[in-house]
UniProtKB/TrEMBL annotation, chain A:
Compositionally biased intervals (Basic and acidic residues): 432-444
Protein name per its UniProtKB record: F-box domain containing protein
Source organism: Trema orientale
Pfam families xrefs: F-box, FBA_1
Ranges for domain F-box: 66-113
Positions of transmembrane segments: none
Stretches with biased composition (Basic residues): 445-456
Region Disordered: start-end pairs: 425-456
Automatic annotation (TrEMBL), chain B:
Source superkingdom: Eukaryota
Protein name (Swiss-Prot/TrEMBL): SKP1-like protein
Keywords from the UniProt entry: Kinase, Transferase, Ubl conjugation pathway
Domain SKP1 component dimerisation span(s) in chain numbering: 115-161
Membrane-traversing stretches: none
Family statement drawn from the similarity comment of this UniProt entry: Belongs to the SKP1 family.
Length: 456, 163
């Protein structure tokens, strides 16, 4: 089949497809033919095929003809491509102009991302000690040294991640939005939040997606106390990746004493905070910042149940799009068990449900900590960072640990699972952080220091 | 090569007529695994004979074989069912020659058999992973339409992806 023209013309309208099919089958055309393109399929096609109509639509080859990959309709080819890795796709941009514009197009990028998220494919583990490493979840020996776009400073931090974009910052305030899969990044301009020297400050940050404005936002708050412990001042600014600007939003409504890790769930960033409460010591609450409405909300926590003789430590995570509380119960220094609670109905206290518990066992061994990393919906499994050097797989259907595997590389103080996507970071200052590859390789050789370890 | 299924008195039977005149008698529950057929039978007063002028009997037969397997497996809600289906799907696509694979994929797409399209596109995707640019051009019969120097420019932008 001579179908080069189809490749040159990326787009076909639904009409041309169905019309052609009618012509191709004049003899037995049935009026029900028109129903063959369901509403859903029409939508799908229209998304990709709405621009220039194709003069030579791809005909369904007669069954007597030999079909090749080139015989496939464009939308099937798009479907096939959406299953490939970011690296393959970046390479296949060179095949032809239509393929290049397809792969660069926002619709394809979203389709690729959605497919990856639905099927839990193209997932990588990011591990941090003094360096950042990316490990392909399908191959735990595949650790690759990453080259984050912020300078060493006094240490780097991944604030959060969303759709394959990571927000990285160092202690000097150098901040960038970074896609490690495409190796592109964008520096976030320094905000004009007024520092107040001499006052005790708490820097609170957050990062996530605003689906209404199709924008990625980074939030930064400066919070400091007045002379009286109960008086405080906060100033909050939000950076928009789309506009590359900062704007001030409502001040933070609580007097923050300390702030633990934050997590993104849905369109809101969540902090577990210790707040000043009627002159008493810190009182723990969870506060959410809605990235769409740009407003705050207090999230109810489940009632605490204490077990005799045990101490516990609760950490907040995101798991399967639920807000999740991970509680490590310890007897002495030893982990007795870890409870995983999720808030099944967002914002509803009564919906906090214990999903399961993990305890040291023959399969899991004994461990320092077990932190859930990701919920793989398609296989009903939860992945755990086990003591910073192993990956544990918990099967939700069988309700047990099914495997524990060593991850190559040193023990790490931070692990997260992110999806490798094609998402761009916009702007002309989009840089290729691969420039320093040589330097990076050098660094990895030199680095023989003991990895730092954070207590969980 | 018409196939008929064992039926109970309550099961509606549909006649599917392929482009080459071959007719298949299938249970409604099997045929409605295909979105297109499902849309048609949901229509009030729909007939039991459905003509599918763009699908050859050979491939329609294969599509229906897949539907039958999946319709049967879905009725008993065993835990291991997912695995049975996955195993069966793997066998189903394993030995397909390329010509059959593409024809089958187009038939499944035409009939809106979403799950089958998924299975077959995944199979095709597995065949084009990790290839060189030239190999993709060859596979899809695409000629480069870049101006001299343009391709080099694009390569440079992500040179690491070519390593």
């Amino acid at each position: 089949m001579e179908l080069n023209n189809v490749q040159q013309c990326m787009v076909q309208t639904t009409e041309t497809i169905s019309l052609y099919r009618v012509h191709a089958s004049v003899t037995e055309f049935d009026k029900r033919e028109t129903f063959l393109l369901s509403v859903e399929k029409r939508k799908k096609r229209e998304t990709f095929l709405e621009e220039n109509p194709c003069p030579n639509p791809n005909p369904i080859p007669n069954s007597a003809e030999t079909a090749t990959m080139a015989s496939l309709p464009w939308d099937i080819i798009v479907n096939i491509l959406s299953r490939l890795s970011v690296k393959d796709l970046l390479r296949y941009r060179c095949v032809s102009k239509p393929l290049c514009s397809l792969i660069d197009g926002p619709d394809f990028i979203k389709m690729h991302l959605n497919h990856s998220m639905e099927t839990n494919s193209h997932l990588s583990l990011i591990r941090a000690d003094l360096e950042l490493r990316s490990v392909d979840l399908d191959n735990l020996d595949s650790a690759v040294l990453l080259n984050p776009p912020v300078n060493e400073g006094l240490g780097k931090d991944i604030v959060g991640h969303c759709h394959g974009l990571l927000l990285v910052t160092n202690r000097d305030g150098d901040t960038a939005i970074w896609n490690p899969a495409t190796r592109k990044h964008r520096k976030v301009p320094i905000s004009d939040l007024k520092e107040n020297p001499g006052k005790f400050e708490i820097g609170v940050v957050g990062f996530g997606y605003d689906p209404v404005n199709d924008d990625y936002k980074f939030l930064r708050m400066i919070h400091y106390y007045g002379r009286d412990i109960s008086s405080f001042h906060s100033e909050v600014k939000v950076y928009s990746l789309k506009t590359n600007t900062w704007k001030r939003v409502a001040d933070f409504p609580y007097n923050v004493m300390h702030c633990a890790n934050g997590v993104l769930v849905g369109n809101s960033w969540h902090w577990m905070l210790g707040i000043q409460y009627q002159y008493s010591s810190a009182f723990e609450i969870v506060v959410a910042f809605d990235l769409v409405a740009e407003s705050y909300r207090k999230i109810p926590l489940p009632d605490k149940k204490k077990n005799k003789g045990q101490s516990y430590l609760t950490t907040m995570r995101e798991l399967g799009e639920w807000l999740c509380l991970v509680t490590h119960h310890k007897v002495g220094e030893m982990v007795d068990h870890v409870d995983i609670f999720v808030m099944k109905e967002y914002g509803v206290k009564e919906s906090w449900t214990k999903l399961f518990s993990v305890a040291p066992s023959d399969v899991a061994g004994s461990f320092e900590f077990a932190m859930p990393l990701a919920y793989l919906r398609s296989v009903h499994q939860v992945l755990f960072d086990l003591s910073g050097d192993k990956l544990m797989v918990y099967d939700l259907k069988r309700k047990r640990v099914v495997s524990v595997k060593e991850i190559s590389g040193p023990q790490c103080d931070l692990s997260l699972v992110y999806v490798r996507s094609l998402l761009g970071v916009g702007g002309s200052d989009e840089n290729n952080s691969e420039k320093k590859a040589g330097e990076n390789a050098d660094k990895s050789k030199k680095q023989k220091q003991q990895p730092s370890r954070k207590k969980k | 090569m018409s196939s008929s299924s064992t039926t109970t008195t309550t099961t509606r039977l549909l006649m599917l007529k392929a482009s080459d005149g071959v007719t298949f008698e299938v249970e409604e529950a099997v045929a409605t695994k295909l979105g297109a057929i499902n849309n048609m039978v949901e229509e009030e007063g729909s007939e039991d004979l459905i003509c599918l002028p763009n699908v050859n009997g050979k491939f329609l037969g294969m599509v229906l074989e897949w539907c039958k397997k999946h319709a049967n497996n879905n009725t008993n809600s065993d835990k291991g069912n997912d695995e049975v289906n996955k195993w069966w799907d793997k066998e189903f696509v394993m030995d397909l020659d390329q010509n059959t694979l593409y024809h089958l994929l187009m038939a499944a797409d035409y009939l809106s058999g979403t799950e089958l399209v998924d299975l077959l596109t995944e199979k095709v995707a597995s065949m084009i992973r990790g290839k060189k640019v030239e190999e993709i051009r060859e596979t899809f019969k695409i000629k480069s339409d870049f101006l001299p120097g343009q391709e080099e420019e694009i390569r440079k932008k992500n040179s690491w992806a070519f390593e």
